[in-house]
Amino acid sequence: MRGKTLAFIGDSVARNQMESLLCLLWQASLQVEVPNERGNKRIHRFYFRSTSTTIVRVWSSWLVHQTPEAIDFAPEGVTKLHLDSPYENFMEFIPTFDVVVLSSGHWFAKRSVYVLNNEIVGGQLWWPDKSREAKINNIEAFGVSVETIVASMATHPNFTGLTILRTYSPDHYEGGAWNSGGSCTGTRPLEPEQLVKNDYTDIMHEKQMTGFHRGIQKKSNKSKFVMMDITEVFSYRYDGHPGPFRTLSPDGKPRTRMQDCLHWCMPGPIDTWNELVLEIIRREYEGKRSSSS
Q: Does 24 fall in a domain?
């Protein structure tokens, strides 16, 4: 990765993974190197002078175009997701990235309106027109969004890099959601017989895989695509979340009753994701893998 750029694009789990990699790279040499940091709300860059390597974070909650403006019977304010259009804030930077790691999924549980071909086709926690049924739900919308972003990168005339789609990151809330008393109090990885099947995680993972494969079928450029499937194996790691310790007071006690059972501790399981990313990069640049898989 000397002289190259690795970009994490997506939600807060993408940021979590990027921060993990920064921590690893800071301590990768005999002398700890703090990267030069610069950026804004659209794109954040961390430059390591010793290797001329740049790590980038681009925030994009859904990876598709979003707007607050009113459309048809959807009023101004509620987020409109144009599922067939990629998020333009990062597409303009795509040609400058050598490796891209995509992360999305969890924001499809949030309130939003789904738009296809400029027509409202569904919504999450929003559907005021009770006289007719929505055409797609949030899970189906997620699958469409994955196909859209993968196809957009696979057909971009100036993108020749490697795209790694990391699959849906499992959360481990028990007894409620993040804002209703949910908790994760594990202290060690689950044994196979202890794993409780999560139907929502399974179907989100399935839709993501389908969208990925449909997207790369449209490939017309020289870029490469790899799916990094972490969903099932990290379902066993309910011990790896910050839980009540995400935000601490000066005396080391939790500041809030809300637990974080979505993001990952550092050091912790998420560091393994970056070991996998670097192994994929090594194999791809050494030509040990096919152009798509």
A: no
> Structure tokens of 158?
């100036």
User: What are residue 279's phi and psi, to 5 degrees?
Assistant: -70, -40
120 bridge partner residues: 115
> What are the strands of the beta sheet with 162-166, ordered from one edge?
36-39, 44-48, 53-59, 5-10, 99-103, 162-166, 224-228
- Do the domain assignments include residue 7? no
- Does residue 205 form part of some domain? yes
Q: Report residue 77 as tokens.
A: 């304010």
Residue 219 structural domain: 62-96+105-269
Please tell me the total count of domains within the chain: 1
In a domain, residue 10? The reply is no
Residues classed as catalytic: 12, 260, 263
Helix (H, G, I), strand (E, B) or coil at 53: strand
- What is the reported pTM? 0.93
The CA–CA distances, whole Å, from 72 to 75, 111, 132, 135 equal 8, 17, 15, 16
Q: Consecutive 10-residue runs of the chain (293 residues): their mean pLDDT?
A: 96 97 83 87 92 96 96 94 95 96 97 96 93 93 98 97 98 88 89 93 98 98 97 96 86 80 95 97 75 45
